[in-house]
Specification:
alpha/beta, 191 residues
Length: 191
């Protein structure tokens, strides 16, 4: 069997019981049983300092930024989970994106997917904005399936800890992961 693709997963929400972080936890759970050949690393972005080029020193970055950039560099693809704030991605996620785009851009050439949970449109506008940002970053997003989840429409989609409990949403999330896996392998010339 071929080596598993490595997926760096980032949540745009820092809240302890975040639904978007819950989507990543559910993706990790799926990767350990329902999907073979995919390993997901949930990368904590909460410790990254706000982007400030004064912190750069002759092509090096603060230690937590260097560690973050290294994890992105080692990944074959990226899974973003982000709520929508003011029709866009969250400040923590944008900050992480910006740090990893500093020379050399460690996002370049990677496959990516976006999932989101939120209000009525389920974070859709944030996804579209992230796709626009990805053009400059040379990220290659899967087009289908799209995953927007209205977290507040009954029946309950998450428990009080922010864990995904909705079976239909888990099935849809699995389809996103399978598409990301196939697209990653295609970009690597392995399909």
């Amino acid at each position: 069997m071929a080596a598993a693709i490595k997926v760096a997963a980032l949540s745009g929400s820092l809240r302890k019981a975040s639904y978007n972080s819950g989507l990543i936890r559910a993706a990790i759970e799926l990767s350990k049983g329902a999907i073979e050949g995919i390993e997901i690393d949930f990368i904590d972005i909460s410790t990254l300092p706000m982007l400030n080029t004064d912190l750069e020193n002759h092509g090096t970055y603060p230690p937590q930024v260097e560690a973050f950039r290294h994890k992105i560099l080692l990944a074959h693809s990226v899974l973003f989970a982000s709520p929508e704030y003011n029709y866009s991605v969250t400040a923590p996620l944008k900050n992480a994106i910006d740090w990893a785009s500093r020379p050399p851009n460690v996002w370049a050439g990677k496959a990516a997917a976006i999932v989101s949970a939120g209000g009525s449109f389920g974070g859709g506008r944030a996804q579209y904005h992230l796709r626009q940002t990805g053009v400059f970053l040379d990220l290659h997003f899967i087009n289908k399936p799209e995953f927007f989840l209205n977290a507040f429409q009954p029946p309950a989609k998450f428990n009080s800890d922010g864990d995904l409990i909705d079976a239909e949403a888990k099935t849809r999330l699995k389809q996103v992961l399978l598409s990301l896996q196939a697209f990653t392998l295609r970009l690597q010339g392995k399909s």
